[in-house]
Protein: SAM-dependent methyltransferase
Organism: Enterococcus silesiacus
Amino acid sequence: MLQTALHFSHTLLKEVVEPGASVVDATMGNGNDTAFLAQLVGSKGLVYAFDIQEAALINTEKKLTELGLTEQVTLFHKGHETIEETIPTETSLTAAVFNLGYLPKSDKQIITKPDTTKKALDAILTRLKPKGRIILVVYYGHTGGEAELALVQDYSQKLPQEEYSVLTYQFVNQRNNPPILFCIEKK
Ligand code: SAM
């Protein structure tokens, strides 16, 4: 069976993230991607995870504690637009993941936004290792979602093909705006 965009995002991360790697979860939410990345990097690796909602940090901390994965993770209660000043420039990132949209079962007004997403992408790209990947799973059915999808499409299509490969993964016959996955890989 074909993988959902969410499942495929983990497959793409698993292919490149090795023990000891430094990675980013740009939209922590309930910590599913944070925990997945923490498992991949192991105790010698580093996961930088960001969210603007306190509830996200509480839920993620709880999940990581239950799984015994707190050692390799740093949770930031701030937006991913602060990555430029938060993650040292000399840090080499193997991967970053974004789940764009709102946190399910919480305030639908708190959504990721094009300008802050762009700022985060710029900062991550300068730190991304060769063969490193940025995965964006874009939910766009909510108010404001189309604008963010347009930003991600425009941003990724403009990346020079000599330096980056970009793919999208999307079900084109499903109802209710299923998420679209983008993967940016540095050559
Ligand atoms: N990956 C998450 C998980 O495993 O549960 C789901 C992420 S949810 C679709 C999007 C998250 O982005 C929300 O938790 C929201 O608070 C967060 N968010 C919104 N704006 C943000 C920003 N500027 N920086 C970081 N996170 C942000």
